[in-house]
Design brief:
The complex is a heterodimer of chains A (72) and B (730). By secondary structure, chain A is mainly beta. In chain A, strand 3 and strand 4 form a beta hairpin. The longest helix of chain A has 7 residues. The radius of gyration of chain A is 12 Å and the shape is globular. Chain B has 3 domains: 240 residues, Aldehyde ferredoxin oxidoreductase, N-terminal domain (Aldehyde Ferredoxin Oxidoreductase,  A, domain 1, 4-Layer Sandwich), CATH 3.60.9.10; 227 residues, Aldehyde Ferredoxin Oxidoreductase Protein, subunit A, domain 2, CATH 1.10.569.10; 222 residues, Aldehyde Ferredoxin Oxidoreductase Protein, subunit A, domain 3. In chain B, the strands form 4 sheets. Chain B has a 7-stranded mixed beta sheet with strand order 1-9-8-13-10-11-12. Chain B has a 6-stranded mixed beta sheet with strand order 3-2-7-4-5-6. In chain B, strand 11 and strand 12 form a beta hairpin. Chain B starts with 14 loop residues before the first helix and ends with a helix. By secondary structure, chain B is an alpha+beta fold. The relative contact order of chain B is 0.11. Chain B is 41% helix and 12% strand. The chains are: A mainly beta (72), B alpha+beta (730).
């Protein structure tokens, strides 16, 4: 749990610490989200896979990382 | 990767002498035929007791209600057995059926056979889906299903020759039963040329299937590039045990040379259109998505570890620092790349990977060079991580022997992990295991257990009875606390869990425990949707998922399809759809495929309606056989929450947070035992609320019984079903 007053975003409803210039890729790394079949939205806007490294996540954003299903 | 992927030990040197020893017991001619609109409209019944061979008509009612595949299997099994039938009674029936879409070579993943029988492990019907060529070749010989009933007096083979139009029952006294040998020899015996080997498929089960309750079936396909007989498994529930109990050494099908139009579809252009689209998606996106073409389902190993979902040490923990030793990149290097690995023609997903050049380390094939079919994710999760064995060579060893002995790798992994935890906790010791030191990570002990199982000797014989019976035996002998054994023994209805951690996903606890056949993930895999995405937070939302997905996935089994091309490849625009988890574009493909082959127009809702008839039929079947009520949908607590102090403490922050935020109890100052007890009460209560919600959504009573009104709604209110449900308040 982040401390009160710290810059925050929410990822799938969970609060995580935010930093200036934080990209979608940084969010995925912070959450250890390694599954390839995911759909990412930042404040309800879809982010395409090829833009994960360049899309900056604003402070107080709501990020959704929807994992699809896979496997046997 | 092996330097020469065609190099392996050969077993066909004495095939001619072995075949010469066969004695023909029965020969019955038939007229080979090809399906029309996906159906032959006849099936083949063989009674091994009386040595009779009979053709049965497929009725319109069968097609309308049961569709094919698993549906046909359940329908025939219902008629074959009585509520008092045991798995090893002669009337038990093994039914193999590919379904109406099975065998098409246009759409990836269309070569599955569905196998149904009364399970030795669960005493209720088991269904298992399997690749390999047998089902489609049988279909293109002229039959929509094969039934094997009765028991032979000696080891026999059943040969369906669709080229010559004859069914033969022959003795086969000399061929070994172990599948990598048996499949190779029988293929050589019944193919008339090298090219003809692709037209021959063998169903077999090895020696462990003879001496355990957990035997699987191996379905073969001939790999032209490797010049090898490859194997795919109908693993779950002990079907191989039933096959060997009937003294069937092998089922042999020699079909015609496969062409693309053999289902005689209603509209080939319609099929080709959606198939071409999917092939392009696989070609364009698989390398960025799941790497199925290079790694198969083994791509999931490190992913499951990252999400705390890879079962470690009998489902105590969800990850391990050594997972990297069995991760996908290891298998990417070990699998022979660049050659087609589809377990049926036309599957460009080609995930049936093979590790060539494995030199066997132990047992009767020590020193042999073999191709190992796999490992797939489930085998890596079960035989490796769950047992704490993070060594790729040992995983190949256990994978190879499970397959050739005819043992389900999922079941073997889970039951060995249970034994290892019992050893860790002093419930078992070296004296009780007959000298086997079943410590975590002891690969040699694991292999010796497997060899004992194959021989039907020592502690391996007890292990081969499965977790349910081991719990009973240990309890009877006063070994361990019965409650602990119940909590950590990962089985429901007598079937062992497959290899995913469900502790932190209530929906997946239901996905395992509310299944018809037992805890196999092929009904509903909801962990990401529930635990990670938090898309289904309420009981009602979880219940909706536990209504839709089991029915959607049942449909694959009715039609002879593989699930993987549905959602292990994603269309480019899937993210923009309203329900990406369902992969709507692929659902549309399936409607087109079904309509295009059978000429029966369906829409997406029809998929659910078709499955719901069969799914409810199977539930009533379970009730008829003495299971299938609420009591039987109860999971072991290990799948719901932390059983031991070590488990709680390993994820204390997670559990303490739940206690504080959801349960409303301050964990500060409480002992670990107190916290375990509070967590357990909360989670068990939550599970029961989920069951209520799911039964309501499925239209069942609070005891899990489909009522008469539900049977009427589905058009399956046959008198014998109505009688069953009325006896249980339905």
């Amino acid at each position: 749990m982040a401390a009160r007053g710290m810059a925050m975003i929410r990822v799938n409803g969970d609060p995580i610490e935010w930093h200036e210039g934080m990209t979608v890729r940084d969010v995925l790394v912070a959450r250890n989200y390694k599954f390839p079949l995911i759909i990412v939205t930042v404040n309800s806007h879809l982010v395409r896979r090829e833009a994960y490294d360049t899309t900056v996540v604003p402070d107080e954003s709501s990020v959704r990382v929807v994992h699809l299903m896979s496997g046997g | 990767m092996a330097e020469d992927y065609t190099k392996r030990t050969e077993y066909t040197g004495e095939a001619a002498q072995m075949k010469a020893a066969h004695v023909l017991l029965r020969e019955v001619p038939f007229t080979p035929s090809l399906p029309e609109l996906g159906y032959n409209n006849r099936t083949l019944h063989i009674d091994l007791t009386t040595l009779t061979v009979t053709e049965k008509p497929v009725t319109q009612q069968m097609k309308d209600i049961f569709i094919g595949g698993r549906g046909f299997g359940l329908w025939y099994l219902w008629q074959a057995i009585k509520p008092t039938t045991k798995w090893n009674d002669p009337e038990n029936d093994i039914i193999i059926s590919p379904g109406p879409l099975g065998g098409n070579t246009q759409y990836p993943g269309s070569g599955k056979s569905l196998v149904v029988t009364l399970s030795p492990q669960t005493s209720i019907p088991i269904d298992s889906n399997v690749g390999g060529y047998f089902g489609p070749l049988m279909k293109f010989s002229g039959f929509d299903a094969l039934e094997i009933q009765g028991k032979a007096e000696q080891d026999v083979i059943v040969v369906i020759d669709g080229q010559k139009g004859v069914v033969r029952i022959e003795t086969a006294p000399l061929e070994p039963s172990d599948s990598h040998v048996a499949a190779e020899i029988f293929t050589a015996e019944y193919a008339e040329t090298e090219a003809d080997r692709r037209n021959v498929s063998i169903v077999s089960a090895g020696r462990a299937a003879e001496n355990s309750l957990i035997g699987c079936l191996n379905f073969s396909w001939y790999d032209l590039r490797r010049k090898a007989t490859r194997l795919k498994q109908a693993g779950r529930g002990g079907i191989g045990t039933v096959l060997r109990d009937k003294k069937v050494k092998a089922l042999v099908c020699r079909g015609p040379q496969v062409r693309g139009d053999m289902n005689h579809p209603a509209d080939m252009a319609r099929i080709t259109k959606v198939a071409t689209k999917l092939h392009k998606e696989i070609h364009d996106f698989d390398d960025q998505q799941c790497h199925m073409r290079r790694q198969g389902t083994a791509h999931l190993v490190e992913i499951m570890d990252a999400y705390d979902l890879l079962p470690v040490h009998n489902f105590q923990y969800g990850n391990h620092p050594d997972t990297k030793k069995i991760a996908s990149w290891i298998w990417d290097a070990r699998f022979t790349q660049g050659i087609p690995d589809g377990c049926w023609y036309g599957c460009s997903m080609a995930c049936s990977k093979g590790a060539d050049g494995h030199i066997v380390k132990t047992g009767p094939y020590k020193g042999h060079v073999v191709t190992v079919d796999g490992p797939e994710y489930e085998t890596a999760g079960g035989c490796a991580a769950n047992c704490g064995i993070f060594e790729p060579d040992w995983l190949l060893e256990s994978n190879f022997y499970c397959d050739t002995y005819g043992i389900c790798t999922i079941t073997f992994g889970t039951l060995t992990a249970f034994i290892m935890e019992c050893y860790q906790r002093g419930i078992l010791n070296k004296e009780r295991t007959g000298g086997l030191e079943m410590t975590w990570g002891n690969a040699e002990a694991q292999m010796e257990l497997l060899h004992q199982m194959a021989r039907g000797e020592g502690f391996g014989k007890i292990a081969g009875l499965g977790v349910l019976r081991m719990k009973r035996i240990f309890t009877e002998r006063g070994w361990g606390d019965p409650q602990l054994l119940q909590d950590i023994g990962m089985e429901i209805k007598g079937l062992e869990y497959s290899q995913y951690m469900s502790k932190e996903s209530l929906a997946q606890q239901g996905g395992y425990a509310l299944t018809n056949k037992g805890p196999q993930h092929d009904e509903a895999w909801l962990i990401f949707m529930d635990m990670v995405n938090k898309q289904i937070p309420t009981f009602e939302a979880k219940a909706e998922a536990l209504y839709y997905f089991p029915l959607f996935r049942t449909w694959f089994g009715l039609n002879g399809l593989c699930k993987l091309p549905w959602n292990d490849i994603e269309p480019e625009d899937n993210a923009q759809t309203s329900e990406p988890a369902k992969v709507p574009d692929h659902v549309y493909n399936y409607c087109e495929l079904f309509s295009g082959i059978t000429g029966r127009e369906i829409q997406k809702q029809d998929i659910i309606t078709m499955s719901e008839k069969v799914y409810n039929f199977q539930r009533v079947f379970n009730i008829r056989m003495g299971k299938g009520l609420r009591l039987h949908d109860t999971p072991p607590y290990r799948s719901v929450g932390p059983v031991t102090r070590e488990e709680y403490e390993s994820r204390a922050e997670r559990y303490d947070t739940q206690m504080r935020e959801e349960i409303g109890v301050n964990p500060d100052g409480l002992s670990v035992d107190e916290k375990i007890a509070i967590t357990r009460r909360y989670r068990e209560d939550r599970y029961q609320k989920l069951v209520d919600a799911v039964y309501t959504r499925r239209g069942w009573t609070t005891d899990g019984v489909p009522p008469v009104s539900k049977l009427q709604e589905l058009g399956i209110d046959f008198p014998e079903l109505v009688e069953v449900v009325k006896q249980h308040g339905g």
